[in-house]
Amino acid sequence: MLKDITLDTIHMIKNRSFSQYAQIYTNIEQSTLEQIETFGVPLQKRVSKYEKDRRLEELRKKGATVRNQNKSVVTNRISSACEACQTGVGSYTTYPSLKCHRKCYFCFNPNQDDYQIHVNQQKDINEELTRLLDRGITLRHLALTGGEPLLFKKETIEFFELANQLTPDTHTRLYTTGDLLDIETLEQLKTANLNEIRFSIKMEDSLQKISHILSQIKLAKNYIPDVLVEMPVIPGTVEEMKKLLLELEKLEIFGINLLEFCFPLGNANAFTERGFELKNPPYEMYYNYWYAGGLAVADSEKECLDLVDFALENELKLGVHYCSLVNKYTGQIYQQNVNETLDSTYLFSNRDYYFKTAKGFGKDRDRIKPTLIKKKIPFEENDEYSFIQFSVEAIPYLRNKNVEIAISSNVVEEDRGESFIREVGLSWTKPDLFHIEDILEKKTRGEFNYDIANANGRF
Question: How far is residue 115 CA from its own chain's centroid?
Fold first, then answer.
């Protein structure tokens, strides 16, 4: 058993040196919360994660699959591209431009690097794809998004034609609002062997507009093997979303991805006018993530889980996948860590992809050290913070010791060509509570494949 150390749990630490060290991370959490408040959308009252754990256990019992350390929930089926997103191995997503004819108040594209440049200038996506393949990179999943890629129909068609020519075994997908889709385009996409198309539906659109997109989805089924809807679940729309699920069930499409609704760090008035608050706590691990989605909005996750429950209760054949904001972070952590080799006090976790190490503090340090010496287990000592660091695999040897142990989560970063390890979070445990399965998946221990990893268009 591990308990994350946060503002809510730091009081449980009895070891003074451990508690003082943990305050580094609660101070980071507190300063982050203060920074978030400056964006202009209020934080909700803090919510215990155990309520979510209870809901997930209920959904498991009803037949849902809970994936990626409680970050993703599935009924019936899930796109292989979504499965690959967990690590990002062999996945690549690009766009011709960030230009879009829609003006969604929750769009996070303005958070992208060089946003204005990529709105006003078009990328040569064919040249980009050719360069990647020329580097010998194997693409298992390839996607085109935007903006709205069908503002550039010719380039979109040519992109998938080129992919079909150069890497025919790659699973390809297209993201679109569906507004600009027509039969001619669908016929060309079919000829280019497009595998998957994902439509977005805006619940704030008129019923007439939504009906039009549903007709586009129905049309696409005649041409593209896998047709999906992917959309954020906006708090307060759960009843309308239930009706939408029933409509999609009638169309017999592959499935729907329910995304946790996010505040894109701007346009705060649009969120406060609608009475939205931000999820609190906002992060499981406070770190600088590449994904530009912003901050999760309170109650979106609850309504996503309500919709998964609705699909199970009504025995929908439709694939329903809840994708949380934190689910989108794991590919980055995997990339940063998977190909790195650290000293023997660190162990790569195939559960959350962080490097883990154990630390004992103060008086506990003196209790732990003799056992490590006796068992010839490598360790390091830090006098500044009074801790001893050793592999988590050695914790069972301490079962007869009444000590508190910090499980440290770490990522490898690069600066000016140099790699260094960065600690980003702590969990609390004791030797009699700890199980190695808290760190390693049982079925894959010793069998984890290290591979070239990439996600979100990064290699």
Answer: 22
How far apart (Å, rounded) are the C-alpha atoms in residues 391 and 377?
8
User: Alpha helix locations (H) across 38-169?
Assistant: 49-62, 80-85, 115-120, 125-134, 153-166
**Model pTM score:** 0.92
426, β-bridge pairs: 408
How far is residue 424's CA from residue 72's CA, in Å, rounded to a whole number? Answer: 22
The C-alpha atoms of residue 249 and residue 311 are separated, in whole angstroms, by: 10
CB atoms within 10 A of CB 72: 23
The two three-digit tokens of residue 348, written as one number = 């790569």
Rounded to whole angstroms, how far apart are CA atoms 294 and 266? 9
Calculate helix-pair angle for 238-251, 300-313, nearest 10 degrees: 40
Which run of H or of E encompasses 188? helix 183-191
Residues 351, 445 contacting (CB under 8 angstroms): no
Which among 183, 138, 192 has a CA at the least distance from the CA of 164? 192
The kind and range of the H/E element at 214 are: helix 207-220
Residue 312 phi/psi, 5-degree rounding, is: -70, -45
The 3-state DSSP class for residue 38 equals coil
Q: What is the pLDDT along the chain (459 residues), one digit of tens a residue?
A: 999 999 999 999 999 999 999 999 999 999 999 999 999 999 999 988 888 999 999 999 999 999 999 999 999 999 999 999 999 999 999 999 999 999 999 999 888 888 888 888 899 999 999 999 999 999 999 999 999 999 999 999 999 999 999 999 999 999 999 999 999 999 999 999 999 999 999 999 999 999 999 999 999 999 999 999 999 999 999 999 999 999 999 999 999 999 999 999 999 999 999 999 999 999 999 999 988 889 999 999 999 999 999 999 999 999 999 999 999 999 999 999 999 999 999 999 999 999 999 999 999 999 999 999 999 999 999 999 999 999 999 999 999 999 999 999 999 999 888 899 999 999 999 999 999 999 998 754 333 332 322 333 332
Question: Would you state the structure tokens that stand for residue 339, as one six-digit string?
Answer: 């190909």
